[in-house]
TrEMBL record:
Pfam families assigned: 2-oxogl_dehyd_N, E1_dh, OxoGdeHyase_C, Transket_pyr
EC numbers: 1.2.4.2
MF annotations from Gene Ontology: oxoglutarate dehydrogenase (succinyl-transferring) activity; thiamine pyrophosphate binding
Catalyses which reaction(s): N(6)-[(R)-lipoyl]-L-lysyl-[protein] + 2-oxoglutarate + H(+) = N(6)-[(R)-S(8)-succinyldihydrolipoyl]-L-lysyl-[protein] + CO2
Name of the protein in question: 2-oxoglutarate dehydrogenase E1 component
SMART domains associated with the record: Transket_pyr (SM00861)
Keyword Oxidoreductase: yes
Superkingdom, natural source: Bacteria
Keywords: Glycolysis, Oxidoreductase, Thiamine pyrophosphate
Cofactor: thiamine diphosphate
CC annotations in GO: cytosol; oxoglutarate dehydrogenase complex
Role noted for this protein: E1 component of the 2-oxoglutarate dehydrogenase (OGDH) complex which catalyzes the decarboxylation of 2-oxoglutarate, the first step in the conversion of 2-oxoglutarate to succinyl-CoA and CO(2).
Length: 947
C-alpha cells in the first residue's frame, strides 16, 4: 500500500480533462474504469461524510460512487490512507478540484435557492464544501486547471467556486449528470456554465417579462373581485408561468415549430386560456355567469375547456391548442401525445421539428399518478414517440388542500420519475422570472437539439386554497402565514427593475391600470394573438358534424376481382423469406381463400378489410400488446423471417406492400399499458378523422386498466366538449373457461355508458361482419367510437366463416336473421343472443332436432337496431315467447340494458324470458369443470319448455 496507485504525472493539471472524464465515468459505473483508477477514487471516497448526498442522487442506471467501506454520513471514522494519496501535493489537489466541480454538477441543486417561501431548510452537503477535500483559505488564491468547466482554462480556486455556486446553487438547480450521453451533458454544461445560470436580457425584454407577469396577476385579481368565491383554481403564486410560456412559444417559432399542443390540469388554466392562448375575457366572464354559447348535450366547467388559437412570432405563425381535460389531472398527457403524433404524421414531421407537445403538471400529480410514468415510457418508443415533450411543473409545494409534502411522495423531488428516461430536469425559483425564462429557453433548445423530453420544475406557491372556497390556513398555518406576507412575484420583479433603472415606479402602476381597463372592456390586450388566422393544415371535420343517420346504408362491399388481387398481394412473400411452418400453412390457406377454394376465416377477412381501406386511400393504425401477430395467433400482419441474416430480425408486413405510394399501415406491439396507450390512441383519433385508428386489448378484461380514458374521454368527450372521435376498440370477449380475467370484456359497462348516440357497441359473429364493420367505420360520414366485442374461439370455429361473395356483395347486418329454413308459423319462441353462444345454441338445436324455436343474432347492441329487430318479431308472428340468452351472469352482460329494447318491440301477448348464468361478483368461474357445467346449463335453459 506504500506504492503509489498511479503515476503522479497522470494527476497533474495538464491532464485535468482526462482525469475528469475518467472520474465522470467512475461516478456512473465504478466497474467501467481501470482497476487502478477505481482504487484511487475509492480511496478518495473514504473520507468522513463522503458521498452521503451522492448516494441519494445515484445516477440512473449506474452504481453509486461510494466505496463499499465508506461510513454513513454523521459517523466519525479514522481511515489510514496510502502515503501517495495522503500526500498533500498540488497534483492531488488538482484532482480534488475536479471532484469539487463534478459534485456541484451532481449535487449543487441541494443548496440552490429554489423556494420563494424559504420554508425548506437546506441540507448540508459536505461534497460542496472545499474543506471536505482538504482545502483551506490558503488554497483559495491558488490557480488550478478547470477541466471541462466552461470559462478560463486556469483559475483561482476562489473564482472556480464562485462560478460553480452561481451556476448550480442560485435560482436554478440542474439535474442532468445521470444522462448517459456525454454530448448531451456537455451541451447542458456549456449553456449553464457559460452564463453562470444568470441571463442577460435587454431592458426592453425585461419590460416585456413584467408586462406578462402583470397580465398573469391582473386577471386573477380581477376575477377575484368580480366573481367572489367562484371556483377558478387561481394561478396566484405561479405567475411566472405566463412569461415562461410566452418565451417558449416565440422561441419555438424561431426554431421552425408550426404547432404547439398543450395539456394541463385546472391550476392556472383560465390564466393560460386568456393570457397565453388569447381567449377573450368577455367569453370567460359569460362562463362565470353561467352562460354557455355551445349547444352541447352536457358541456363542462370552464376550467376544463380547451381552446385553439394562433400566435404571431417574429419568425411566423404558431398554432396553439390546449387540450380539453377532465379533473383526472395527468390523464390528458397521453391524449396530447397522441394528438401530436397524428399532426406530425399529417405534416410528415418524422423528427418532431414542426409539432411540439407541452405538458403542464402539478407537483403532487406528477409524482403521484401512474399515467405520468406510462406516458414517459412511451416517449422514446417507435410507435408513440413525438420527438420529445417540454414538461412544466407548477410546483406549489403543497399539492392539494390538506396535503403534506411528506405524504405526497417517497422521492426527494417530485420530478424524480423523469430520470427513468434520462430527461434533464431544471428546477427554478418561480420568484425569479428571468431565471424562469432562461430555463424555458434552455429546455426548448435541448428538446429541439436532442428530441428528448425535458422537465422544468418551477418552484412557487399557491396564494389561495385548492379552490377559492377553501381556507388553507386550517391545515397549513405556517406556510400561509409566510404567503400572506409575500408581496407577489410581479411586485418583487417591478421593484427590481425600478432599482435597475429599467422602469420608473409610475410605469408599473400604468401597466396594472391598463390591464384592468382591458378587462372592463372584455378584450384581450395580447397583441400577438391572430384571431382571424386559418391554418392551411387545419383538419376538416365538417363532413362528420352533420346529424347522425345511423340507419343509412353505405356500400362497404368490395368488388370480387379487387378482393382476389388484394389477397394475392397479402400472400406474396419475398423470395428467400423463411416463414415458420405454422405461419406458412396460414399463408397458404389464405392464398386458397383468395382463390375461393376455402371459406374465409377471421384473420383473412380482417386483413382484407385493412387492405381494401388502404387501397381506397385510408391510412390504418393498429396498436395493442400483441397486435402484429394477434394474441390468438390469428392476424399475422407482421411476418418474421425464421433465418435472419444477422442479429437484426427481418420482418415483412404485407399490408405495406400492396401498391406504390399507398397510405401508411402502422401496426404496433405496444408496451404493457392500457391507460396511456388507449389515451394516446384516443388523442390520435380525435385529430385524424380520415385514418382508421384501432386499439386492441390483449384480453377485453384488461381494458378496465384504462377506465378513466373510456369514461372521461371516449364515452363523454362529444357531450362535454364536442370532440368527435372515430376510435375503434377491439376487446376479445367470450367464455372459454379461462377464468375471471380472461372471459368478459365487461360489455355491461359500455352499454351503461351509451346515451345520446355517443358510441357504437357491436358483437360480430362472422368474419364478413368484422370486415364490413371496420369498413363502415371509415366510409360512413360518422365519427363515433366503435366498441367491438371481438372473438377468441370463434377465430377458428369451423362454422364461423364467410365467403368472398359476402365481402363483395354484403354489408354490416345489425341483426342476423334465423339462417335455417324454419316454418315461421310454427315458431313458438324467438331466442335472441350475441356472439359465440349463437354457435352453441345452434349445435344444441340440431342435436335435439328442435324446429319450433328461432335463433336471431343482435350484432349491434347500440344504437339499437329497432327496425331490423321489429322485422324479426313480425316474421315470427305466432311466437308467444321472446328469450334473451347470454353467457355472462345476470348482473352483467347485455341483459339489463337490452330488456327494455326487447319489450318495446314485443306484442302484448308475448312473454319475455332469459337464460344466463346466476348473478355473480366475479365475471367468470375459474374452474374448467364448473365452467362447462354452467355453460351447458344455460344452453339447455334457452330451450326449456316454459320460460
Amino acid at each position: 500500500m506504500n506504492k503509489p496507485l498511479l503515476d503522479d504525472t497522470l494527476l497533474s493539471g495538464a491532464n485535468a480533462a482526462f482525469v475528469e472524464a475518467v472520474y465522470d465515468e467512475y461516478l456512473h459505473n465504478p466497474n467501467s474504469v481501470a482497476l487502478a483508477w477505481r482504487e484511487y477514487f475509492d480511496q478518495l471516497a473514504k473520507q468522513p461524510e463522503a458521498a452521503a448526498a451522492r448516494q441519494t442522487q445515484a445516477p440512473v442506471g449506474g452504481a453509486t460512487a461510494v466505496a463499499p467501506t465508506a461510513k454513513p454520513s454523521g459517523r466519525e471514522t479514522q481511515t489510514v490512507l496510502p502515503e501517495a494519496v495522503a500526500a498533500d501535493t498540488d497534483d492531488r489537489k488538482q484532482v480534488a478540484v475536479l471532484q469539487l466541480i463534478n459534485m456541484h454538477r451532481y449535487l449543487g441543486l441541494n443548496q440552490a435557492k429554489l423556494d420563494p417561501l424559504g420554508l425548506k431548510q437546506q441540507a448540508d452537503v459536505p461534497e460542496l464544501n472545499p474543506a471536505h477535500y482538504g482545502f483551506t483559505e490558503a488554497d483559495m488564491d491558488k490557480v488550478f486547471n478547470t477541466g471541462s468547466l466552461v470559462g478560463p482554462e486556469h483559475a483561482q480556486l476562489r473564482e472556480i467556486l464562485q462560478i460553480l455556486r452561481e451556476t448550480y446553487c442560485g435560482s436554478v438547480g440542474a439535474e442532468y449528470m445521470y444522462i448517459s450521453s456525454v454530448e448531451q451533458k456537455r451541451w447542458i454544461q456549456a449553456r449553464l456554465e457559460g452564463q453562470r445560470s444568470n441571463p442577460d436580457y435587454s431592458a426592453d425584454y425585461k419590460r416585456h417579462i413584467l408586462e406578462r407577469l402583470n397580465a398573469a396577476e391582473g386577471l386573477e385579481k380581477y376575477l377575484h373581485t368580480r366573481y367572489v368565491g367562484q371556483k377558478r383554481f387561481s394561478g396566484e403564486g405561479n405567475e411566472s408561468l405566463i412569461p415562461l410560456l410566452d418565451n417558449l412559444i416565440h422561441r419555438a417559432g424561431k426554431a421552425g415549430v408550426q404547432q404547439i399542443i398543450m395539456g394541463m390540469a385546472h391550476r392556472a388554466r383560465l390564466n393560460v386560456l386568456v393570457n397565453t392562448l388569447g381567449k377573450m375575457p368577455a367569453d370567460l366572464f359569460r362562463e362565470f355567469e353561467g352562460k354557455q354559447p355551445e349547444a352541447l348535450p352536457s358541456g363542462d366547467v370552464k376550467y376544463h375547456q380547451g381552446f385553439s388559437s394562433a400566435i404571431k412570432t417574429a419568425d411566423g405563425i404558431v398554432r396553439l391548442a390546449l387540450a380539453f381535460n377532465p379533473s383526472h389531472l395527468e390523464i390528458v398527457n397521453p391524449v396530447v401525445e397522441g394528438s401530436v403524433r397524428a399532426r406530425q404524421h399529417l405534416l410528415n414531421d418524422k423528427l418532431g421539428d414542426r409539432v411540439l407537445p407541452v405538458l403542464i403538471h402539478g407537483d403532487a400529480a406528477f409524482a403521484g399518478q401512474g399515467v405520468v410514468m406510462e406516458t414517459l415510457n412511451l416517449s422514446q418508443t417507435r410507435g408513440y414517440g413525438t420527438g420529445g415533450t417540454v414538461h412544466i411543473i407548477i410546483n406549489n409545494q403543497i399539492g392539494f388542500t390538506t396535503s403534506d409534502p411528506r405524504d405526497s411522495r417517497s422521492t426527494l423531488y417530485c420530478t424524480d420519475v423523469a430520470k427513468m428516461i434520462e430527461a434533464p430536469i431544471f428546477h427554478v425559483n418561480g420568484d425569479d422570472p428571468e431565471a424562469v425564462v432562461m430555463v424555458a429557453e434552455l429546455a426548448l433548445d435541448f428538446r429541439m437539439r436532442f428530441h428528448k423530453d425535458v422537465v422544468i420544475d418551477m418552484v412557487c406557491f399557491r396564494r389561495l386554497g385548492h379552490n377559492e372556497q377553501d381556507e388553507p390556513m386550517v391545515t397549513q398555518p405556517r406556510m400561509y402565514q409566510i404567503i400572506n406576507q409575500h408581496p407577489g412575484t410581479r411586485k418583487r420583479y417591478a421593484d427590481k427593475l425600478i432599482g435597475e433603472g429599467v422602469i420608473k415606479p409610475e410605469d408599473a402602476d400604468q401597466l396594472v391600470q391598463a390591464y384592468r381597463e382591458a378587462m372592463d372592456e372584455g378584450v384581450n390586450p395580447n397583441k400577438t394573438v391572430c384571431y382571424d388566422y386559418k391554418s392551411p393544415y387545419t383538419i376538416n371535420w365538417e363532413p362528420f358534424v352533420q346529424p347522425c343517420k345511423w340507419n343509412k346504408k353505405v356500400k362497404t362491399g368490395v368488388a370480387l376481382q379487387t378482393l382476389k388481387q388484394l389477397a394475392l398481394r397479402l400472400t406474396d412473400i419475398p423470395e428467400g423469406f423463411k416463414l415458420h411452418s405454422r405461419v406458412e400453412k396460414i399463408i397458404a390457406d389464405r392464398r386458397s381463400m383468395g382463390n375461393g377454394e376455402l371459406p374465409l376465416d377471421w384473420g383473412m377477412a380482417e386483413n382484407l378489410a385493412y387492405a381494401s381501406l388502404l387501397k381506397e386511400g385510408y391510412p390504418v393504425r393498429l396498436s395493442g400488446q400483441d397486435s402484429g401477430r394477434g394474441t390468438f395467433f390469428h392476424r399475422h400482419a407482421v411476418l418474421h423471417d425464421q433465418v435472419a441474416a444477422d442479429q437484426n430480425e427481418r420482418i415483412y408486413v404485407p399490408l405495406r406492400h400492396l401498391y406504390p405510394e399507398q397510405p401508411d399501415f402502422v401496426v404496433i406491439d405496444s408496451m404493457l399499458s392500457e391507460e396511456a396507450v388507449l389515451g394516446f390512441e384516443y388523442g390520435y383519433a380525435t385529430t385524424q378523422p380520415t385514418e382508421l385508428v384501432i386499439w386492441e386489448a390483449q384480453f377485453g378484461d384488461f381494458a378496465n386498466g384504462a377506465q378513466v380514458v373510456i369514461d372521461q374521454f371516449i364515452a363523454s368527450g362529444e357531450a362535454k366538449w364536442g370532440r368527435l372521435c372515430g376510435l375503434v376498440m377491439m376487446l376479445p370477449h367470450g367464455y372459454e373457461g379461462q377464468g375471471p380475467e380472461h372471459s368478459s370484456a365487461r360489455l355491461e359497462r359500455y352499454l351503461q355508458l351509451c346515451a345520446d348516440y355517443n358510441i357504437q357497441v357491436c358483437v360480430p359473429s362472422t368474419p364478413a361482419q368484422m370486415f364490413h364493420a371496420l369498413r363502415r367505420q371509415m366510409i360512413r360520414p360518422i365519427r363515433k367510437p366503435l366498441i367491438i366485442m371481438s372473438p377468441k374461439s370463434m377465430l377458428r370455429h369451423k362454422e364461423s366463416v364467410s365467403s368472398l361473395d359476402e365481402l363483395a356483395h354484403g354489408h354490416f347486418y345489425p341483426v342476423i336473421s334465423e339462417t335455417e329454413n324454419l316454418d315461421s308459423n310454427r315458431v313458438k319462441r324467438i331466442i335472441a343472443c350475441s356472439g359465440k353462444i349463437y354457435y352453441e345454441l345452434m349445435a344444441y338445436r340440431k342435436e335435439q332436432q328442435i324446429s319450433d324455436m328461432a335463433i336471431i343474432r343482435l350484432e349491434q347492441l347500440y344504437p339499437f337496431p329497432h327496425e331490423e329487430f321489429q322485422a324479426e318479431i313480425d316474421r315470427f308472428g305466432n311466437a308467444k315467447e321472446v328469450l334473451w340468452c347470454q353467457e355472462e351472469p345476470g348482473n352483467q352482460g347485455a341483459w339489463h340494458r337490452i330488456q327494455h329494447y326487447l319489450l318495446r318491440h314485443m306484442k302484448p301477448d308475448q312473454v319475455l324470458g332469459y337464460a344466463l348464468r346466476a348473478s355473480s361478483a366475479s365475471p367468470a368461474v375459474g374452474y374448467t369443470a364448473r365452467h362447462k357445467f354452467t355453460q351447458n346449463e344455460l344452453i339447455v335453459a334457452a330451450f326449456r319448455e316454459k320460460i
